[in-house]
Amino acid sequence: MTNFKKTKSKVANKILNVVKESLEADKAKDIIIITLVGKTDIAENMVIASGRSARHVDATSDHLITNLKNAGIKGVVSEGRENKDWVLIDTGYVIVNIFRPEVRAHYDLEKLWGSESSNKKFKQANAQ
Question: What is the pLDDT of residues 37-46, one digit of tens each?
């Protein structure tokens, strides 16, 4: 059991690195990671990010899916690509939510899944 958890965390860390690099390259905004361990079994981590517009959300999610597949991550599933307000990408270990800012504010997943103290902001390569 312990070895499985270590392996699972290594996979989750690999996925998080791909996600971070992809979102930063596409200039996604307000990227955070929430640890889900101990809260749910659906994934180890949740990443939440914002796009500037529906078009930006769509392009960012498309690039992320491509980058995950190119990194050898199998079983990537997405939802919401048709309306482009909120795209969910599920890798099995990490769930990524990319929102338009208004939609993100409405659903407020950060508040639902974790307190501010448990959230870590990714340092943006494009910080001003």
Answer: 888 889 999 9
C-alpha to C-alpha distance for 34 and 79, rounded to whole angstroms: 20
User: Amino acid identity of 96?
Assistant: V
Predicted pLDDT of residue 128: 37
State the pTM of this model: 0.84
CA atoms within 13 A on the CB side of 95: 17
For the chain, give the number of residues: 128
Q: 25 vs 28, 88, 92, CA distance in Å?
A: 8, 19, 23
Q: Which CATH class, in words, describes the domain spanning 2-121?
A: alpha beta
Exposed (0-12), middle (13-18) or buried (19+): which is 2, by Cβ within 10 Å? exposed
- Tens digits of residue pLDDT in 31-65: 999 988 888 889 999 999 999 999 999 999 999 99
d(CA 2, CA 128): 42
The CA-based diameter of the chain, rounded to the nearest angstrom, is: 44
List the structure tokens of 6.
């270590």
